[in-house]
Amino acid sequence: MDKLSFVVAATSQDGFRVVLSWAEVDPEFGSCSALLATRYNGRRLTRPTLVTPRDARSSRYVRDVACIEISRVGVRAAATR
Fold first, then answer.
1. N or C: the chain end with fewer CB closer than 10 Å?
2. Phi (first) and psi of residue 22, to 5 degrees
3. CA-CA distance, 36 to 10, in Å (whole number)?
4. Are strands 17-21 and 65-72 parallel, antiparallel or unpaired?
5. What is the per-residue pLDDT across 6-63, written as a single tens digit (0 to 9) for each?
6. Exposure letters 62-74 (e unless 16+ CB within 10 A, then b)
């Protein structure tokens, strides 16, 4: 289950950033579908748009995507008392 320690971050040209867990986009897990659209109504977009169609709100849509990063989330040691 090493895949579950990764996240995907999409940042727009103006700095808006959204982070998705790997489990949200991997069909083996949640299969939530995140799409990187390069066209809208048949017209080519200048920059792609990240779309999460199953979200009830469009708050995780990222227009004018400038950067996509995949990174591993670090594991913190459990606090001892």
1. C
2. -60, -40
3. 10
4. unpaired
5. 999 999 999 999 999 888 888 888 666 788 999 999 999 999 999 988 888 888 899 9
6. bbebeeeeeeeee
